[in-house]
From TrEMBL:
Metal-binding listed as a keyword: no
Record's protein name: Flavoprotein family protein
Names of the cofactor(s): FAD
Organism encoding this protein: Megasphaera elsdenii DSM 20460
Pfam families: HI0933_like, HI0933_like_1st
Domain of life (superkingdom): Bacteria
Domain RsdA/BaiN/AoA(So)-like insert residue range list: 189-352
Length: 417
């Protein structure tokens, strides 16, 4: 019986262990925490966005961090394969907006407990609260040095995650293991993370959420990316879905340096001409009011003073004294409310890590190292990262399944360089 050593009991590690066990191997799963799937238990705001119902081609398109590397993994283990497994194991699922798939119960903890039971049922040897300190290749064998001792196996699968949410155990250990075995680790950056801003006024709006707005990121007058949807003002700057996606785009720009400019189109459904017409109607309606009171039908009350300040209009200016030029300046501001992005929150707060073990050194058909035989990688420790919407978890499950199956079956597929 082949013996497989898996390091890290996140989504990728759990799936790798289960796949290897189902293929007939004896599996040791090492986890520094006292539970499996700790980060999995907080994903999707505690609801666990398991995957997405889109095509696998769309998964690639939603993975700016080396999505093409995942073609083979997605062919071997699709989103439907994942759902078939989870449903067969007793987890009811549902589809929501944007194709996002969640457990019917809206409980990430239910998913984590289900996977724990499956690991026990499949006879996986769980080494909880057992941190791994080193991984070595010894001839055709792999050796793992853990807190509880040294373990020797036919193969080792590193699934230790990235640098985000270190309280869940993702502290970058896998990068050190890979480097010690001769692998390259690309630059590590925070992805899917809020922005900090030079301006302090977002603090005064902290907690205010805007829907149906468009955010665009600019550098030296050139637009880097733009997204439509929802955003949130915070005590340190801005966050929310479109901000997280912009941060992903910034992480993958080679010349990404801060500061950058964030422009918010507060009325993307209206052209500037239609917006000017709307302003004229509102000003006629509130002709005897001050400017701050004339925009209450157009904007959230807390945002009005900020918009007027950027447009250069006094908040107490009577509406009947606002000139045509001032009204056009106001329209311009509504279409491009500006903020200076000074950086991101710390990488520890990122949803995922951009960068990781170089995909050039991994066989995409098996997840086996091209440098060290019998060494495999899966999940976020690899230099792959995707947008929110279930894409990152699917990548973890798929690469974990492929690595576990290949390691257990001694599968040797020629790699196309």
């Amino acid at each position: 019986m082949k013996e497989i050593l898996v390091i890290g009991a996140g989504a990728a590690g759990i799936m790798a262990a289960l796949a290897a066990a189902e293929a007939g191997a004896r599996v040791h799963l090492f986890e520094k925490n006292d539970i499996v799937g700790k980060k999995l238990g907080i994903t999707g705001k505690g609801r666990c966005n398991l995957t997405n119902s889109c095509t696998m081609a769309d998964f690639i398109a939603h993975t700016p961090g080396h999505g093409k590397f995942l073609y083979s993994a997605y062919e071997q283990f699709t989103n439907q394969d994942l759902l078939d497994k989870l449903n067969a194991w007793g987890l009811a699922t549902k589809e929501e907006r944007g194709g996002r798939i969640f457990p019917q119960s809206d409980s990430a903890i239910e998913v984590r407990k289900l996977l724990y039971r499956k690991l026990c049922h499949k006879g996986v040897d769980l080494h909880l609260s057992d941190a791994v300190h080193a991984v070595k290749a010894w001839g055709s064998r792999m050796v793992v040095s853990a807190a509880s001792g040294n373990y020797e196996g036919d193969a080792c699968i590193i699934t230790t995650g990235g640098m985000s949410y270190p309280v869940t155990g993702s502290t970058g250990d896998g990068y050190d293991f890979a480097r010690s075995l001769g692998h390259s680790v690309t630059e590590l950056k925070p992805a899917l993370i809020p922005f900090t801003t030079a301006e302090t006024w977002p603090h005064t709006l902290s907690g205010l959420s805007l829907r149906n707005v468009e955010g665009s990121l600019w550098k030296r007058g050139k637009k880097m990316a733009s997204y439509f949807g929802e955003m949130l003002f915070t005590h340190f700057g801005v966050s929310g879905p479109i901000i997280l996606m912009l941060s992903m785009a910034a992480a993958h720009k080679k010349a990404c340096t801060f500061p950058m400019q964030l422009r918010l189109d507060l009325k993307p459904a209206l052209s500037k001409e239609k917006l000017d017409a709307r302003l004229r109607r509102d000003f006629e309606k509130y002709i005897r009011k001050e400017a701050a009171n004339a925009l209450k039908d157009l904007l959230p009350q807390r945002l009005i003073p900020i918009v007027l300040d950027q447009a250069g209009i006094a908040r107490d200016c009577p509406v009947n004294q606002i000139s045509r030029e001032q009204r056009q300046d106001l329209a311009d501001t509504l279409k491009a409310l500006s903020l200076t992005v000074t950086g991101t929150r710390p990488i520890e707060e990122a949803i995922v890590t951009a960068g990781g073990i170089s995909v050039k050194e991994i066989n995409p058909k098996t997840m086996e190292s091209k440098l060290v035989p019998h060494l495999y990688f899966a999940g976020e420790v690899i230099d792959i990262d995707a947008f929110t919407g279930g894409y990152n978890l699917q990548a973890a499950f798929s690469t974990g399944f492929v690595a576990g199956t290949a390691a257990a079956t001694k599968e040797c597929i020629p790699c196309e360089n």
